[in-house]
Design brief:
Elements (H helix, E strand, L loop, with lengths): L6 H15 L11 E9 L6 H19 L7 E9 L4 H13 L5 E3 L3 H6 L1 H7 L3 E2 L16 E2 L5 H15 L6 E6 L3 H4 L2 H10 L3 E7 L8 H10 L3 E5 L2 H13 L5 E4 L8 H5 L7 E4 L11 H10 L9 H19 L6 H8 L28 E6 L2 E4 L7
Parallel strand pairs: 1-2, 1-3, 3-4, 4-5, 6-7, 6-8, 8-9, 9-10
Antiparallel strand pairs: 10-11, 11-12
Helix pairs in contact: 2-13, 6-8, 13-14
Keywords: Signal
Family: Belongs to the leucine-binding protein family.
Protein name: ABC transporter substrate-binding protein
Length: 392
Amino acid sequence: MKKFMSISMILLLVLGVMAGCSGGEKASGDEKGTIKIGGLFDLTGGTGDVGTPYAEGEKAYFEHLATKGLVNGYKLELIGDDYAYKIPEAQKLYQKLKSKDKVAGVLGWGTGDTEALRSLVANDKLPYISASYSENLKNLEESPYNFLVAATYSDQARSAIKWIKDNHKGGTPTLALIYNDTAFGKSPIEDAKAFAAENGVEVVDEQIVELSALDATSQLLNMEKKNPDYAIIQQTWGATATILKDAKKLDIDTKFIGLNWATGEGLLPIAGEAAEGFIGVVTHAFPYEDLEGMADIKEYLESKGKTIDDINQKFVQGWVAASIMVEGVKLADDPTTGEGIRKGLEKISNLEFGGLAAPITFTADNHAGTNQIRLAEVKNGKWEVFTDYIGY
């Protein structure tokens, strides 16, 4: 005698299959579910020149990760959007990621928005790794869920000033500071002035050049009156190129040194010959460096029909930031909660990236992963690194 399933039994089976396939929260087999990480990207705003390749690197890392299987039994997914470097838009996007998408951590971007979100991030217990390296984020009382994955802007400036002090010939070195009037631009300025004073480097001038500036002639003429030996630039590629081109036009012989967002391949085609001799702080590797850590990136690029010629240093920077968040998930006892991932991140000790970046260490008392940078100089239209990782 044949046995037939009742309608109710069929419905139960169908619902069971649907439940296993919906939302990614729970899955069949060995998969425990999906852990979502939020992303705030600047693709079209004031720092979109460097923000776009950085975001591409973050997204690429998660795509590559998906081909390697589960992480502690979970599928990981990056969910993000462009907020155009506007703090109110960043706040709206953050609320969406938290409330609607139920993310367990966030990969953020700018200094102004990262600092504006600190209290929310702490209250929501969401680990937050951004592309801002503001010294303020070292304060664990105010930023208990923020993690710094490269030397702070202040530490970068300190290392550059130490290099100036150690390598300058002939008398007291003099220094100018050129930056934009944003939280990002102003972030290292007071620390740089204090460190310079403590180390026998005289800061003789400051000039503000906006991120979107197409002319910096007046600022550079004012700076030239003080005739500084060196000038540290805290900008992204666009404004840096403007400064270098106008300095060349005015035949200014000051030695310019850019912090990390002023550094990278994207500067070269827009600055042209004016970039020759420019020194940059390097927090992450250039794709053309022969490094072990480039293997996974090359594998990913090959899967997309691309090569290292299709990416730049900021892509590598985003890739590394994403990998650090994922390492926190791997080390977490409970990777489904922000609190769990924070504890996982605090277990990271001397995490190496095959040369892609300085090793990172976090503890419960210190979320500043490193103070190490390298220095590179533009020679014959190409960045050449000329130091190992150094501090101050």
